[in-house]
Amino acid sequence: MSLAAATVAASGAHGFLSPTGVEIAFLLVGLVTFGAALVTVTTRQLVHAALWLVVALGGLAVEYLLLTAEFIAWVQVLIYVGSVVVLLLFGLMLTKAPIGRSPDADSGNRWAALAVAVAAAVALVWVVVDAFRTTWIDLDGPAAGTTRITGESLFRTWVLPFEALSVLLLAALVGAIVLSRKATADANAAPAAAADTTGEKEGAR
User: Fold this and answer.
1) I want to staple 19 with a disulfide (CB 3.0 to 4.6 A). Which of 23, 26, 136, 183 is the partner?
2) Please, what is the angle between helix 85-94 and helix 46-66, to 10°?
3) 54 and 89 in contact (C-beta within 8 Å)?
4) Among 8-12, 39-43, 44-48, 141-145, where is mean pLDDT lowest?
C-alpha cells in the first residue's frame, strides 16, 4: 500500500464518531469555558464575576493551544488574564464596589440580555462561517499561529482595532479613578455640611 493510499485510509477511518484526544479535550475545555462565562454574567457578586472571568479567558487560552496557536494563547494570558482582569479588579477597588452579594448587580432584564446574547452569537457565527467558507489552510506552509505570521497580521491589518482597544482600557481606568474621587469628595462634604447645620442651630439659640 502506498503512502497516499494509507493517508486516505486513515482519514476515512477518522470521522465524527471517532474523535481524537485533542478534539475531546477541545470539547471539554469549551464546556468548562462556557460554564465559567455563564456564571460570570449571572452571579451577583462582582469579585466572583471577575474571578470566573479569569477562568473563562484561561479556557480560551487553552483552546488556542489545542489549535496550535501558541502565540495567540500566550497573548490571551498576558493581555486579557494578566491585564484586563487586573484592571477590572482595580476598578472594583477604586469605586468601592460591594465585595459580597449585591442585589443591585441584577437589573431584572435577563430575558432581554439573553435575547441580545443569542442574536450576537448567531451573527458572529454567521460572519465567521461566511468569511472562512472558501478558506483553505496550507499544511505545507508556515504555521498560522506563529509569532511572525500573527505579528504581521496584527500590525498591518488590525493595528487600528488594537490601538482602539488600548484607548478603551485607558478610558475605563480613568473613569474608575474619577468615580472614586467623586465619591470621596461627597463623603467629605457630608460631615462638613452637618457641622455647619449644627453651628447654625447653636447660633440661633
Assistant:
1) 23
2) 170
3) no
4) 8-12
